[in-house]
Amino acid sequence: MKKKEIWILAVLALVSLAALLIMKQPWKKPEEKTLVAIYHQNKVIHTFDPEEDAIYHITGSYGTLDVEVKDGSWHVTNEQCPNHICAGMGWVTVDDMIPITCLPNEVYIMVLENQ
């Protein structure tokens, strides 16, 4: 092998090693934030972070309802509708992937895609 060929191989080896080290570097991705949306008549009227405890007062087509968020879960309380089915659904989390639906109020609550 000629001296020039050895230098070319050495440079290629160093470039390959540097590329390998850069690719193995644990780059920080921005954290994906999960949001939950409250819809009324198929329009988003409010979004919230399920990790922040709060109570949201929503006005629907039939009356009002409250959405309580606590410890990464949420549920409906104090709703004004005839059957109270949405309150009976209990606490929901991101992992459940089940929307809470209040048909008389035309309100539903579901997880949005990661933002």
Largest sheet: 4 strands, antiparallel
Which class do the helix and strand fractions yield? alpha+beta
pLDDT < 50 stretches = none
Globally, the shape reads rod-shaped
Strand content: 25-35%
What's the arrangement of strands in the largest beta sheet? 2-1-8-7
Task: Give the helix tally.
Answer: 2
Helix content: 10-25%
What is the alpha-carbon Rg in Å? 26 Å
Number of strands: 8
Write down the overall mean pLDDT.
Answer: 85
Termini separation comes to 55 Å
Order of helices and strands: HEEEEEHEEE
Description:
It is rod-shaped, with a radius of gyration of 26 Å. The protein has a 4-stranded antiparallel sheet with strand order 2-1-8-7, with no helix packed on it. It has a 4-stranded antiparallel sheet with strand order 3-4-5-6. The protein contains 2 helices and 8 strands, in the order H-E-E-E-E-E-H-E-E-E. The chain has helices spanning 3-24, 85-88; strands spanning 36-40, 43-48, 54-59, 64-70, 73-77, 92-93, 100-102, 107-111. It is α+β, with helices and mostly antiparallel strands. Helix content is 23%, strand content 34%. The chain starts with a helix and ends with a strand.
